[in-house]
Amino acid sequence: MIQKIVDTLIERQSQNYEMTDDDEQIYRYGYILLCEVILNLIIALIVGVVFSKVKEVLFFLGVYIPLRSFCGGWHADRIWKCTLISNGILLLQIYAIGNIIKYLRSSVMFAIFFFNMLYIFLVAPVEIKEKQINWDEKRIYRKKIKLILAINLLIMVFVVLFDVREFVFTMMFIYIIQSIMLVLEIMKQKRLYIDRRK
Q: Which residues fall within 8 angstroms of residue 155, CB to CB, at 6 or more apart?
């Protein structure tokens, strides 16, 4: 379904604008990402309503999307896999807020968050094959990542001070997930590099 929407958008755009093959690939990638984001947002909001966790879901999305957008990391190779994994992560977060959060102190969650934040600071951005970035783009991404990390650190301090445990947990959870995505992509790239050298 998403592929048909993207094909229609590309076809209409190519009628008004002469596109090279590279242009078409860039637009196709952008439209697919846009459709994925819209689909995942709709599903996420439905999940939030069903489990009465709309504010937690909105907070999750508000923090995770900018972080994920600039940090990069592993991405699913199919739209349905992305949707399934993204919403599986969201369901895991909702489950953990209801069942695991009571066993964690805010100071422990803050420490885990901070450790993962440092890892992201040192490693990101991690590009993927479908979204290569040059040196100048990497510098720009690094600046944006630093800003996002600083804002998120302030948010984390605020939610810890006001003991909003669901949001403290959500911040920790987001940073764990983002760190995992970076590690997975780095491992994938190393494996591809080793395979190419054989």
A: 63, 167, 171
